[in-house]
């Protein structure tokens, strides 16, 4: 039963990476930690260590990729923070999809306020959106690898 709940939490964590409402990587890591503790085996702890390493790498790569692309395009962190806040508000205004609508609108609005030029703001916002998407794909790829490590261990009856 615990294995099923951990698997479900991992799936929710993966969804949390794509729809950034839940802390996806943290949820996956904590779920596997609970599983490793419950199994009480050395292999379970090695699986947790591997999963944690993959999740940490995914988070770091996401941060570096996003930061590199946005900085090189001149998008300030303040615009990304405002876009994130707009996305959070949007999530509650239009459940789930509001995040996907309000984040880009918030980024465009912040860049328009800063640049006072619609085409420059759109170009800057587009770079920010691409960087965010690329970072998300990096984190998702490594989280899927982490989920795969756990699944292999479960299927081999650790």
In percent terms, what proportion of residues is strand? under 5%
What is the number of helices? 6
**What count of structural domains?**
1
Q: Give the H and E element order.
A: HHHHHH
Largest sheet: none
Shape: elongated
Counting DSSP E segments of at least 2 residues, the number of strands comes to 0
The Rg value, from CA coordinates, equals 18 Å
Uncertain regions spanning at least 5 consecutive residues: none
Compute the average pLDDT: 91
Structural class: mainly alpha
In short:
This protein is an all-alpha fold. The chain is built from 6 helices and no strands.
Could you explain the architecture of this structure?
The protein has helices at residues 2-18, 24-39, 42-73, 77-93, 97-115, 118-155. The chain has 158 residues and is mostly helical. The longest helix has 38 residues, at 118-155. The chain has one domain (2-155). It has 6 helices and no strands.
Lay out the secondary structure.
Elements: H1 2-18, H2 24-39, H3 42-73, H4 77-93, H5 97-115, H6 118-155
Helix pairs in contact: 1-2, 1-6, 2-3, 3-6, 4-5, 5-6
Keywords:
158 residues; mainly alpha; single chain
């Amino acid at each position: 039963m615990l294995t099923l709940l951990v698997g479900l939490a991992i799936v929710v964590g993966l969804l949390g990476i794509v729809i950034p409402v839940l802390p996806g990587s943290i949820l996956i890591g904590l779920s596997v930690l609970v599983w490793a503790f419950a199994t009480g085996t050395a292999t379970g702890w090695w699986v947790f260590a591997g999963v944690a390493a993959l999740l940490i790498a995914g988070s770091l790569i996401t941060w570096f990729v996003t930061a590199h692309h946005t900085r090189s395009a001149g998008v300030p962190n303040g615009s990304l923070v405002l876009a994130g806040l707009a996305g959070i508000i949007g999530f509650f205004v239009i459940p789930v999809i509001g995040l996907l609508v309000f984040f880009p609108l918030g980024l465009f609005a912040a860049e328009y306020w800063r640049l006072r030029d619609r085409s420059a703001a759109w170009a800057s916002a587009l770079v920010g959106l691409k960087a965010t998407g690329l970072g998300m794909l990096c984190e998702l790829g490594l989280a899927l690898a982490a989920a795969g490590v756990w699944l292999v261990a479960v299927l081999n009856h650790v």
